[in-house]
Amino acid sequence: MSVTVGRPRGGQQAVTAIHHIDDTVDELIERERALSALDAALRRSSEGRVRMVLVEGAIGTGKTALVWRFLEQAESSGVLCFGVHIRPDERSLSVDTLDRMFRNVAVPHLFRTAVARRLSALRDGCGADGPTLVSQLTELAADLLDLAESVPVLLVIDDIHHLDTDSLHALLHLLPTASAGRVLVVLTADESRQPLDWRMPTGLLMRPNFQRVVLNRLSEDGARLAATRRLGEAAAEALPADLVALSAGNPLVLEYLSRAYEATGTGYPQGYAQAFVECLRRCPPETVEVVRALAALGEQATPELVAELAAVDRVDVDLLPLTNAGLLDGQSFRHPSAARAVLRDMPAGVCAGLHRRAALLLHDEGAPALDVAHQLIQADEHELPWASELLLDAAGEALALNRVGLALECVKLAGRAERDPVARAVVDARLSRLEWHLKPLAAARHVQSQLKDGAAGRLSARDTLDLAWRTAWFGRIDAVEPLLSAVGRTPDGGDVNELVRWLAFTYPKHTFSRGPVTAPPSSAQAEPWLHSASSLAQGLIGAPNDQGVADAERVLQSLALDHESLWSGETAALALLTLVYGDRLEEAVAHADRLLDEARDAEMPTWHAVFRAVRAEALFRQGDLPGAYDEAVTALAEIPVQGWGIVVGLPVGCAVNAAVRMGDLSAAKRLLGSPLPKSALRSRYGLHFLHARGHYRLAVGLPQAALADFLACGSLTEGWGAGGVGVVPWRTSAAEAWSRHGNPDQARRLLRDQLAMLPPSSGRARGQAMRVLACVSRDTRRPQLLTDAVDVLKNCGDKYELARALTDLSVALRQGGDQLKARRTARRALHFAKAAGARPLCDEAALYDQEAKAARLARDEDEKLSLLTGQEIRVAALAVEGDTNHEIAAKLYITPSTVEQHLTRIFRKLNVKRRDELPWQLDTWSA
C-alpha cells in the first residue's frame, strides 16, 4: 500500500494503489495520518510480521521530522530502536555508517558481540563493498530477527537517496526478508536527481510487506492554513500573499518564513534565505556545486556556463532536488536573497576561487567587461594579465549605467593591478574623481599623493584641472599655484586663464598667476566645462544682469552631469547660483529639482547635497524660512561636514539665517558651531557664513560684533569692485548694524552706495536697502521710502522681506497719525510673516495690529462720549462709580426722576443697556 500526503504532482507512480488527499483543510491532518500509518505498521510487525515503509518526498516536506518523531514514540513504548542518518557526502554504505546505527543502544550482550564481530570483519576484509559486505549484512539481518524474538525492533535509515546504486542493492541484504519476525524497517528518501525506483532493487519494491508513504508540498490554501496555525488568526489576516507564494508549499521553508515574519514583520525574505541554505545542505555534492555556480554567475547563468563552472553534465538533473522542493523556479532562484545566502555560506577562499573561475570562463566566452569585472571584484583578483584594462573598461560601462559605486570598485581593483607609476597615477586620478562623487572626505585623503604625481608630470591636463578643483574645494590654496604652472606646461592644457578666472571668484582676496608657460596652448580645451564655469564665475563677480541669467539658463538646459568631470557639476552649481543671485528664484528651484533627480539617478550624492544647498538658498530668498532651513539641514546631513570643504559655508549660512528669522536662536547657535576650515572664511562661501553669523549677533543684541562680520564680507569682496552685491547684501546689513550701534550717518552712506551699485533688476536687494534707509531717515520721509520698498518687494517674491517692510510701514503710519491704514498694513504684514514662518515678526506685526485696534476703539468711544451734554457726563460718571439714583440726585442737587431721565438718554446715545456697560473713560471726561 502507498499513501500520498499533500498535493499530488503529475508523473508520480505508485507500486500499488495510492491514496491521495486533496482536501485542503485535511492536508495538515494527513501529516498526522502518515504518522498513524507508521504506528499501524509497527503494530503489525509487533504481531510477528516484518514490515518495511519507505517515506518519500521533496526536501523540506518533513520526512526526517516524521520518522524521528515516530522513533522516539516507539522507543518510549518499549520498542528496541536503531537509527542512522545518511549524510550527503556518504555515497557508499560504510562501516562507520553501520557503526553509528548500532552504537549507544542498550542491547543484549550476545547481539552487541555479534554486531562487533560483523563490523570487525568488514574492517579487516574488503571494506564496505564486495561479497564480504553482502554476507555480513545478511548475517546482521539474521541477528536482528533473532533479537526480535524477545523484543520488537525498529530500524530507521534516513536519507537513503544519498547512497549510490551499489550501496542501495547491498542495503537490501540488511533488511530482514523473513515474513515472520517482529521487525519494522523505515526508510526515507528525497526526490533526488534520479527517481529512487530506478536505483532500488526490484525485489524490495515488490515485497508484499513493503509500503510507501509520499509527503508532497502543500497547496496554496494548505500553506496559508499552516501559517495561520503557526502565527495565529490575527497575524495571519495581515500575512503578505507573497510570503505564502514564496514558500511554494514547502513546510520547512514556510516555517522559516513564518518565524522571520513573526520576529520582524517585514524581514521574511531573510527567513527564506536561511531555509534555502538549510535545504541545500541536505543535497548531494553535485547539486551544491551547481547551485553555487548558479549563484556566482547571477544574470549571466546559462545551462552551458553553469555546467562548465560546476563541472557537471546535466544542470537540470542536478537541480531536481531543489526544483522538486519548490526552492527553484526552473533554473532560477525564487528570491535574490537565496543566491546571496548561498555565496555567504561558502568558505571565503572557496567562494573567491569560484568567482575567479567564473571570471576566466566569462572572459573566454567574450562576456561584457562589466560582467567579468563583477566576478573579479568578488574574487578580489587583480593579478590576471588582462585584469587592469578590463576593469577600467568595465568602470566606463558601469558609469554609463549610473552605477558609480560599482565603477569605483572596478577602478580600485585596477589600481592595485598597475605597476607602472604613470599608469598608476592616471588610475588614481580617476579613482579620486569617482570617490568625490560618493565620498568627498575619502577623496580628500588622496590629494597629497596626487599633488606629488602632478609635480612629477604624471597627470594629464584634464586630471590636473580636476585636481586643482578638488584642491580648491578643500581649501588647499597654497597647492593650487603649482598646478597652474603644470597645466600651463601641458600641450593640451587649454587656456589657464579660464582656471584663474574661476579661482578669482572662489577666493576673492587671493591673487593667482598663470605661471610659466613653456608650450603653446592648445585650441581644444582639456576640460570641456571649464570655459562655462569660468564665464559664469566672471559673471557672478560683476553685478547680476540679464545676460548672465540668460547664459545660466542656456547652460542648465544643455548640461548633463558627467561622472568623469567634476567641472560639469561645478558649472551646474554656478549656473543655479547665478539664477539665485539674480532673483530668478522660481527658475532656480525648478532647475535645482531637475538636477537633484539627475544627481540621485546618477549616484552622485555629493552633487545632490550641493544642489540641495543651493535650492535651500533660493527658498530662503523667497521667504520660505521653514523650507529653507529643512533643505539646508538635510543637505548637511547627506555628506559629512568635513567632506563639504569650503562649500560648507553655503548650507550652514542659509540654515542659520533661516533659524534666526524663525526665532530659533538655539538652533542658529548650534549650527554656527559647525567645524569650518579656516580657508572657508577666505572663500566666497564664507560670505554666506559671515553674513548669517552677523544677523545672529544682531538678533542676540551684539551690533558691534555683527558689524565686524558684515564688514569682513565687504573686505573679502573688495577685489571685486562693484561686484558681489548679489551674493550677500553686506552693505545693507552693515547699515542696519550701524543704525543699532547709534551711527545713522554711516548707515546712510553705506545704503546710498548699495543703491547706486544695484542694477534695476535687483528687486530684493533694492527693497532691503530702501527699508533700512527708511529706518535711518527723517520721520517725514519714512512712509514714502517704506511704501516704495513694499512696491519693489512685492514683485520679487520674498515673503519675509515684504513682511518686514510692511511691519515697519505700519509703525510709520501709526506714528504719522493714519491709524486705519496702519492697522490694515499690520494685518498684511502678519499675513506674510505667517506665510514665511517668521515667528518673531508675527509677534511684532500682531502687536502693532492690537495697538492700532485699541486706539481705534478708544477713538470710537471718544466720539460717542462727545454726544453727551455736560450734565449727562456728570450723571454717567457717578453711575460708573456705583452711586444710586438718589445719591446722584443728592450730589448734583437734582431730583431722582431727573437722574432717571438723564440715564435713559445716556444709554440710548452710548448704545448700552445697563450701568455696568458704561465706558470707564467717563470718569476721565467728568474730571
From TrEMBL:
InterPro entries: AAA+_ATPase (IPR003593), AAA_16 (IPR041664), P-loop_NTPase (IPR027417), Sig_transdc_resp-reg_C-effctor (IPR016032), Tscrpt_reg_LuxR_C (IPR000792), WH-like_DNA-bd_sf (IPR036388). CDD domains: LuxR_C_like. Keywords: DNA-binding, Transcription, Transcription regulation. The keyword DNA-binding applies. Pfam families: AAA_16, GerE. Coiled coil: none annotated. It comes from the Bacteria. Residues 861-925 form the HTH luxR-type domain. Gene3D superfamilies: P-loop containing nucleotide triphosphate hydrolases, Winged helix-like DNA-binding domain superfamily/Winged helix DNA-binding domain. This is AAA family ATPase.
